[in-house]
Amino acid sequence: MDNSFDFLISPNILKPKRFSPKLRIAILASGEGSNFQELIYLSKSNKLDIDIKILISNRPEAGCILKAKKSNICFKIIKNSDYEKKESFENEIINTIKKTDVELIVMAGWMKIMSSKFVNEFKNKIINIHPSLLPSFKGNNAINEAMSCCSKITGCSVHFVEPEVDSGRLIMQAALSITNEDNLETLSKKIHFLEHKILPLSISQAGFMLRNDLKDND
Ligand code: GRF
């Protein structure tokens, strides 16, 4: 991809904070896992002080599972269709996370809407990445919707998770122009490129806030 497009990241954080011991995280993902892969790379190359304790996916065929296998990262598949009730599905995830003893839960392409019970179980400890400039274009068709509305600017956001979908305190955002030449594929690639920049930095910001019991993102 041609990465020579202009973008703006806010807040303008350039480097992640250091953690010793490393920040223990769980990843929830349902898709290809390009964000997950970037986190694996940064962790293994000691550019980001995280310890990815587990990947949880609800889709056995998802690309993220393959990436976990290749990198020897512990993973667990928890399929919603294996449970009669959403509550039991979520309880299995809650129990798995609790057993794993992580500090932060990162939703990196997690395509299930979780109940308030789940969110409140890990209050202020779950972050999510979303491919729009929230609060615009919530939901699972964000890139398409931004294009269909002829928006001139879009981007991606990382936020703390609240029971209301795609809401919650913003940690970082990245913005870029939608040009006349863009189509869904080119714009998605650009947004992914920016996601891979802001998700690691947001993890470090959120981890710093958690470890220091801070309420504000600074
Ligand atoms: C990203 O665009 C993210 O914003 C959205 O799902 C996508 C996941 O991509 N929530 P990947 O699986 O990390 O490649």
Number of contiguous helices: 6
Helix content: 25-40%
Q: How much strand content do the residues show?
A: 15-25%
Q: At the third CATH level, what is the topology name? A: Rossmann fold
Strand order in the largest sheet: 1-8-7-6-5-2-3-4
Instruction: Look at the helices and sheets and give the structural class.
Output: alpha/beta
Overall tally of domains: 1
Write down the overall geometry: globular
Largest sheet: 8 strands, mixed
- Listing every helix as H and every strand as E from the N terminus to the C terminus, the arrangement reads EEHEHEHEHEHEEH
Compute the number of strand runs.
8
| CATH class category | Alpha Beta
Question: Which oligomeric form is depicted?
Answer: single chain
- Say which molecules are bound, naming each kind only once: 5-O-phosphono-beta-D-ribofuranosylamine
Radius of gyration: 17 Å
Q: CATH homologous superfamily, by name?
A: Formyl transferase, N-terminal domain
Tell me the layout of helices and strands.
Layout: E1 7-10, E2 23-28, H1 34-44, E3 50-57, H2 63-70, E4 75-77, H3 86-100, E5 104-107, H4 116-121, E6 126-130, H5 142-148, E7 153-160, E8 170-177, H6 184-211
Helix pairs in contact: 1-6
The structure holds 5-O-phosphono-beta-D-ribofuranosylamine.
Task: Write a brief structural summary.
With 218 residues, this protein is of the alpha/beta class.
Can you describe what's shown?
By secondary structure, the chain is an alpha/beta fold. The protein has a single domain, classed as Formyl transferase, N-terminal domain (Rossmann fold, 3-Layer(aba) Sandwich), CATH 3.40.50. The protein is built from 6 helices and 8 strands, in the order E-E-H-E-H-E-H-E-H-E-H-E-E-H. It has an 8-stranded mixed β-sheet with strand order 1-8-7-6-5-2-3-4, sandwiched between helices. Strand 2, helix 1 and strand 3 form a beta-alpha-beta unit. Helix 1 packs across helix 6. The longest helix is centred in the C-terminal third of the chain and has 28 residues. It is globular. The model has no long low-confidence stretch (mean pLDDT 96). The site of 5-O-phosphono-beta-D-ribofuranosylamine has 14 residues, from helix 1 and strand 6.
